[in-house]
Design brief:
Distance between the termini: 28 Å
Largest sheet: 7 strands, antiparallel
Number of domains: 4
Number of strands: 28
Number of helices: 5
Helix content: 10-25%
């Protein structure tokens, strides 16, 4: 989504809006290759990569595949003496996967697993939508791509880590159950302290609604040494040793200090086909700004400098819009609002997408809250000031009961009451020198000569932080 480094307050509100379907963003590829657990996706057939969930294997030697006479189904025989097959993913030649958690083994037509020596009969490939007739038709099996997930012979703990996704329709994508849910948040807001024109800076962060479970807990509970395999994560789990009589016992635990997951930028709704949009099971890390409505109708911007690496601990101040706090983008008027941030982990269920919005109405409420506080008619506003900003200028207050406040960049956790309040505070603002203004103009000229839009935008952002 399009963004300007010096926006009005209205631009900020636009940036925090609830995301809309990007039906016109035909220039945004559905799959850009940065979802590392996915080998391919639309417009190609959906396929998982080699980094499968724990104790899952693609076409292993112990699982004998016998394709039926019509090529539309496969019989799976388990020749593993110590493991049962709990889940089978059957891919089609023209689409993604059909997921099976129960099987017709002859012993039962709803057996929870395929035990050693048993054969599961007639596991059909999914249906796909024919490009000529536009009807759903039965696909043939891609036997080389069949995936099986195993655990021990007990039926109490089943290793069933994948779920068929209903969206996008007819794609037959699958998602992994064991993925985090990350909730973006509005962290701070303030009026820029060093700009003669009234601009504002919005801070954003995130919290963790749900993190990973250990591989052992998620994969049937039988393999105490199983480790998490999400290629988008790092330091997700760790080995814990415990002294026991006569030896040392080890187990795997979630690393609640070092765990992180990567979510590169991607819009919330890239076009999947002529009638439906994503995100599907692929990732989302998307800032939406109101100004994007007036930008290139064929491409939607997602990246505005926001964080792409997310900690198990969360981060209340991971991204600031409007200044030097990690990648702040300033705005000037309510016409620039609303603004939104949407997040979803890669290979997570579509309904785990989470968003936060900041709207013109929310800005008005924030600004009025400060006015009520100045006049002694209301409590201190709860939303912190963004580093490097002040509280908004007082207005329509005959007697200022409570002074304006400043959030210095050097000490972002400290709120300092300004000594000078009201309109007189403007007179103490430090003005740029002639030399600084000249340097600012030179910076803008150099920025205008950059070869790409992104380079020009980044360069102008650096200029905007110079005294001018």
């Amino acid at each position: 989504m399009r963004f300007r480094l010096a926006l009005g307050v209205s631009a900020l509100a636009a940036m925090m809006a609830v995301p809309t379907v990007a039906s016109g963003a035909i220039g945004n590829r559905y799959n850009d290759g940065q979802d590392l657990a996915v080998r391919q996706a639309a417009p190609a057939n959906f396929r998982l990569d080699g980094s499968l969930e724990p104790d899952c294997y693609r076409n292993p030697a112990f699982a004998h595949m016998d394709v039926g006479d019509g090529n539309t189904s496969v019989h799976v025989t388990n020749n593993n003496p110590t493991r049962s097959i709990d889940q089978v993913l059957v891919p089609g030649l023209h689409t993604g996967y059909q997921v099976y958690n129960t099987f017709d083994t002859g012993t039962s037509n709803a057996d929870p697993d395929i035990d050693t020596g048993q054969q599961a009969l007639s596991l059909s490939a999914p249906q796909f939508r024919d490009s000529r007739s536009h009807l759903l038709v039965q696909d043939n099996v891609d036997a080389a791509g069949v995936i099986v997930c195993v655990s021990d012979h007990e039926d109490l703990g089943q290793n069933e880590p994948y779920v068929h996704s209903a969206t996008p329709a007819d794609a037959n994508e699958v998602y992994a159950k064991n993925r985090p849910i990350i909730q973006p948040t509005v962290a701070s807001l303030g009026q820029a302290a060093s700009n003669a024109a009234k601009t504002y800076k919005l801070g954003m962060g995130y919290s963790i609604s749900r993190w990973y479970l250990t591989a052992n807990a998620n994969a049937g509970g039988e393999d105490a040494a199983a480790r998490l395999t999400d290629p988008m994560g790092f330091s997700l789990d760790k080995v814990v040793t415990t002294a026991v009589p006569g030896s040392i016992a080890s187990s795997i635990a979630i690393d609640n200090d070092a765990g992180h997951v990567n979510i590169p930028p991607r819009i919330a709704g890239p076009v999947f086909d002529a009638v439906s949009d994503g995100p599907g099971v692929l990732r989302v890390n998307d800032i939406d700004a109101a100004g994007e409505a007036f930008a290139d109708p064929h491409f939607e911007q997602a990246f505005y400098g926001q964080t792409t690496t997310f900690s198990v601990k969360g981060d209340a101040q991971s991204f600031c819009l409007g200044g030097p706090c990690a990648a702040i983008v300033a705005f000037g008027t309510q016409g620039d609002l609303p603004v939104s941030w949407s997040l979803k982990a890669s290979l997570a269920a579509p309904d785990t997408l989470r968003s936060v919005s900041f709207t013109p109405a929310q800005f008005d409420a924030w600004e009025q809250g400060w006015q009520n506080y100045y006049c002694g008619k209301g409590p201190h506003p709860t939303l912190p000031l963004t580093p490097g900003t002040n509280s908004p200028d007082p207005r329509d207050c005959p007697v200022i009961v409570n002074p304006t406040e400043v959030r210095p960049t050097a000490a972002p956790t400290v709120i300092v009451n300004a000594a000078v309040v009201g309109s007189s505070a403007k007179k103490t603002a430090k003005k740029a020198t002639a030399k600084q203004r000249a340097a600012y103009k030179r910076c803008l000229k150099k920025a205008a000569k950059k070869s790409s839009k992104k380079a020009r935008r980044n360069a102008r952002g650096k200029c905007a932080r110079m005294p001018h």
